């Protein structure tokens, strides 16, 4: 049992340490604005954003966007392992980084959305440039300016292209300095030029088994919610129905207003008609997504009759889950009606439920499981281990406390006599 507990722990850490291979690119920054706080990054860490300091400062921004860029491009073409190097292909860039207040972030996730974000939040004039000079740009002296430079393609003749790009840095930086306004330059790529070594698997492979006519229900509502389950059971007093797979998604389902409304219509079954599941999800300011409502409409006829129209069910079905995480529960609890009038006892039980709302990627994110981390087998493992370790400690302490005698009886000498005073 102890071994099992340890293995479970090991497996868990192994899973956590697997990193997803998403598009990451390095970002280089240089600025003539000494007040500008530049972000810093720890080696091996991925940065998600550059901070808001860029927007607040009264300065121009210039963003150089290359089609693809990776750490290897810089190390290889800038001759970085040679201390006396002049920077090889990137010698202007090296000079710029040295002369200016600069920063280097080796790994930034999704640089495209970062640049997009910069563009959206920027309150000033935005100019798009694809040439090699800023001569044609109509700078607005009254406002801040953001220049988005699309660098030449590096797909063919990389070395030559990078050399040209290095020249562009030099020229445009000079032109920016000439504007007599502080500026910060950002150099990054739309994606990584490194092919991912292999696509890592993160979390469960539920979507990998996608085959039509399958034994599960999977709903992808216009890319804003994934909803997977293998079975749903509907209970009404003592009666029970196992619901069919792949219910119809009601056309009124939508996710345009910051909330997700998902409505599932089940086909009529004997004794159970008009069955409709209504889910409403929203995201909270604390970067969680939450199930606001789970309402049920049903009509039961037959041995027992009853109906419910949009009756609220317990939202304990799905607890609040952090953004980008999915919620998973292999054997869900029985979800009952919660209204004041609970004489109509409809209940549902979901099996192998996995849901993720908002911030979706190609598959479910890492899962928040309904079975907590400290399950009974894990506790049993830990307690057994502690017990065995304490027995061992006791034994070792006992062994250490054995002392050799400091006096021995000498058979030739006088016998030791101990006077006993009575
Ligand atoms: C679905 O699973 C059930 C039980 O696991 C099995 O009896 C059934 O044949 C499966 N159906 C399909 C279409 O795979
Ligand atoms: C979900 O739908 C969106 C667009 O409707 C699509 O881009 C995405 O690939 C789909 N995801 C899955 C897992 O099918
Ligand atoms: C979104 O909300 C606005 C105002 O609250 C409303 O007018 C509009 O109809 C809503 N759109 C949808 C699709 O629900
Ligand atoms: C209704 O009750 C009868 C007798 O108790 C039973 O045989 C029958 O299966 C029940 N029907 C349903 C739909 O539960
Ligand atoms: C669910 O039911 C509750 C109580 O009747 C109601 O306030 C809420 O608006 C309903 N939710 C939806 C999405 O219809
Ligand atoms: C739901 O109803 C069932 C049967 O009526 C009951 O046994 C169970 O405790 C209820 N669950 C909750 C969470 O109230
Ligand atoms: C509660 O449910 C019963 C049976 O369905 C119904 O007769 C009664 O009017 C309901 N009470 C309220 C307050 O809704
Ligand atoms: C996740 O989605 C919510 C709601 O659409 C959005 O406000 C939030 O910025 C997104 N978070 C990330 C990290 O994309």
TrEMBL record:
The keyword Flavoprotein does not apply. Residues 372-410 form the V-type proton ATPase subunit S1/VOA1 transmembrane domain. Keywords: Membrane, Signal, Transmembrane, Transmembrane helix. One of its GO terms (molecular function) is ATPase activator activity. It is a single-pass membrane protein. The chain crosses the membrane at residues 378-402. GO terms for biological process: regulation of cellular pH. Residues 224-358 form the V-type proton ATPase subunit S1 luminal domain. It is found in: Membrane. It holds the Pfam family Ac45-VOA1_TM. Residues 1-21 form the signal peptide. GO terms for cellular component: proton-transporting V-type ATPase complex. Its main location: membrane. Gene3D superfamilies: 2.40.160.110. Belongs to the vacuolar ATPase subunit S1 family. PANTHER family: V-TYPE PROTON ATPASE SUBUNIT S1, VACUOLAR ATP SYNTHASE SUBUNIT S1. This is V-type proton ATPase subunit S1. It comes from Capitella teleta.
